[in-house]
Amino acid sequence: MKQKLTQHKKALIVALCLLLTIGALACLWQERRLSRSLSSQQAAERWRGESEMDYAQISCFVPVDEAISENQIFAFRAALHEELGKAAIESEGLWRDAWSGTGKIFVSGQKWRGDAAVIAVGGDFFLFHPLRLLSGSYLREDDLMKDRVVLDENLAWQLFGGTDLAGMEIRLNDKPFVIAGVVEREKDRASRMAYTAGAGLYMSSESYAALTEEENFITCYELVSPEPVKDFNQRVAKDRFPIGRGEVLVNSGRFSFARLLGLLRHMDERSMQGMGMIYPYWENAARVTENRAARLQFSAMLLALLPLITLLIRLIGLLKKGKERLAEELWPRTKEAVSEAIRRPQRRRWEKKYGKHS
């Protein structure tokens, strides 16, 4: 009866460990799924492609009261080119950047007119934010005409009642602009939570500056660039970018095991922010996703604790049993074999000296 009870307990422990292991694996799978859900955090991977060179993606966030101009961006580009040259990297065509600022603008279309959210962008913005095109095309830095805009799906329906609008005209602050394309906003839960500005559009930073007569409105700068040594781009940004009281963040690897573990230790500190920083919605979405991924990773570690301890105890038991078997069976035979190996030459010498039958 006692043996049956012991076997029953062992079976329960095995079943519990199996369930906990399944739970831990499920948490890790969900954490990995979350870490791949934000395209805005994967620009380095997309840009690198099949290249053997290491790349890093960084973001610079500037407080709203220290917003910068395009001229400062261009100055940093020159500084980056210089620093890459010092690292013996021919930088032409190897890096891409983008910048953005947010605001409101008065929009007029066929069916609606009113204030809409605007993200003024420059550089290769849609490399970092490859929103799904419903029609038309993105804005590009090398566009000859700067009077083109990209609408989000909500604004397109409000203005025209549809999304196939490439080439049609709208008015921004009573100035004519041409619709380049219509995009669908991100569908992941974190981005839907983070984007609260309502129907909106994207336009070139140059056009926004001319339309609003604002020069300093850029609060976010993004870069993907070769990484000859660890933290190279972060160091260059901290030294040469007009960051002020802002923050330089490394997007690459932000969902790694070590980064998420560190986030668990400093989550309370990160919640306290007193620099006048207003993060763009994609960074807020990334931070929400980071917090969830960190909690899932911690849950996986807790769930795996009992199975790992049980496995360790089992391995120690097997090692102990193996040691006992070694002592009881193998060691005596080995000892006898060694003794026989010692006695054999002694016996041959004796026989040689006195003869076998003496």
Can you describe this structure?
The chain has 358 residues and is α+β, with helices and mostly antiparallel strands. It has a domain at 39-253. The chain is 51% helix and 20% strand. It has 10 helices and 10 strands. Strands 2-3-8-5-7-6 form a 6-stranded mixed β-barrel. α1 packs across α10 (281-354). The model has no long low-confidence stretch (mean pLDDT 87).
Summary of the model, kept short:
This protein is of the alpha+beta class and 358 residues long. The protein has helices at residues 2-35, 43-48, 70-86, 125-128, 153-160, 189-194, 205-212, 232-240, 257-271, 281-354, and strands at residues 55-61, 96-108, 113-123, 132-136, 148-152, 169-172, 175-184, 200-204, 220-226, 247-250. Helix 1 crosses helix 10 and helix 9 (257-271) crosses helix 10 (281-354).
Topology:
Blueprint: H1 2-35, H2 43-48, E1 55-61, H3 70-86, E2 96-108, E3 113-123, H4 125-128, E4 132-136, E5 148-152, H5 153-160, E6 169-172, E7 175-184, H6 189-194, E8 200-204, H7 205-212, E9 220-226, H8 232-240, E10 247-250, H9 257-271, H10 281-354
Parallel strand pairs: 3-8, 5-7
Antiparallel strand pairs: 1-9, 1-10, 2-3, 2-6, 2-9, 4-7, 5-8, 6-7
Helix pairs in contact: 1-10, 9-10
